[in-house]
Every structure is written in C-alpha cells, then in structure tokens.
Amino acid sequence: MMSLWENSLIDMYAKCGSMLDAWRVFKKMPSLTVVSWTAVIFGHVKCGEGHKALEVFQQMQQVV
Hints:
Helix 1 packs parallel to helix 3. The chain has one domain. It is 80% helix and 0% strand. It is globular and about 30 Å long. It is mainly alpha-helical.
C-alpha cells in the first residue's frame, strides 16, 4: 500500500517540475515496481528531459 503513496508523490513532484524531489522518493522506495519506474520516466518526459527518460528506461531494463 505504501508504494501507491510513493508513486503518487513521484507523479505529483514530476507534474510540479521537481524531478529532484521525485528522485528522492524513488531512491528511498524499498521495492521498485514497473509503476514506479514508469512514473519517473514519464516525469522526465513531462519536464522536457527526453534524454534522461531514455537513460532511466535503459536502467529499468537492466534491473527489471
């Protein structure tokens, strides 16, 4: 249940343009899900950071 709140926080921070805060939440999560990774990736896209979104996507592929 906690990951629901954390994923929501990541999404909220991304929508506000604060990817640094989104990353802080992401890094502190005890277990990362596809939803968590997707929230961070789309956050970078929303903030106009397509290159960073691709980097995170590649990281996700290595971990998941």
